[in-house]
Amino acid sequence: MSVRIHPAAHVDAKAQLGADVDVGPGTVIGPDVIVGDRTRIASCARLEGWTRVGRECQISHGAVLGTPPQDLKYHAGAPSYLEIGDHTVLREYMTANLATEPEATTRVGSHCLLMAYSHVAHNCLIGEHVVIANAVQMAGYVAVEDWAIVGGSTVVHQFARIGCHAMVGGGSRISQDIAPFVKAAGSPPRLAGINSVGLERRGVPEATRKALDQAYRLLFRTSLTVEQAAGRMRAELPGIAEIEHLARFAETSVRGLTR
Q1: What is the distance between the alpha carbons of residues 242 and 14, in angstroms, rounded to a whole number?
Q2: How far is CA 247 from CA 43, 126, 213, in A?
Q3: Measured over all CA atoms, what is the biggest interatomic distance in the chain, rounded to whole angstroms?
Q4: What confidence tens digit (pLDDT) does each residue in 155-178 have?
Q5: Model-level pTM?
Q6: DSSP 3-state helix, strand, coil percentages of the chain (rounded to 5)?
Q7: Phi, psi angle pair for 155, to nearest 5°
Q8: Strands 189-194 and 182-186
Q9: What angle do CA 142, 80, 114 make, to 5 degrees?
């Protein structure tokens, strides 16, 4: 199947475009860019640097991918990367930067939706099935795990983590880690229990949801330390993968947990 490049687009001869790629007018694609099969790139987008885009993605008008990181430690020349997974949608004017260090990668997973004006900074790691709403601004080295949802105009501090299946309300200011499976919102943010509706929609069994609610109360509604709460969770709720993930996330938090 042929590649369709609008006459008003500029695609470097060295760029690698897969089968049935569509490139709109005014779009610029640099020499080190790789685009997967059946990806659609709208008008006036810019793809540069060492950017890898997966199969069947949608890149909307004005999106900018693979520009140098906004980091004074960055030295141009040595390759660093931006990777976008398959079936991911990047809406209007969304931006994502290369990683800072040579050979490092900024990564957005598959089946994600990043809405208009959102920003993924250098060295961020975004999981699968993640929804990032309009104008979310992520600083460098942020990690967002699978199935998380981040509400519009939220700002996320560098090195902060947002756990899997978490839901962050719009307009929040995230300076510490958001635990997996929880709801949080505000500036500063406050927790509001587990994301029970989201978990149910994704097929998590009721027994597991109840166990997560019990673990949430141990971790966030008692005076136990993180280590004590994690030990209690493992002892009282053994053999549940989600409980172990929550415990490990809490134990490995560097910036501390949002409570």
Answers
A1: 45
A2: 45, 21, 13
A3: 65
A4: 999 999 999 999 999 999 999 999
A5: 0.97
A6: 15, 30, 55
A7: -115, 140
A8: antiparallel
A9: 45
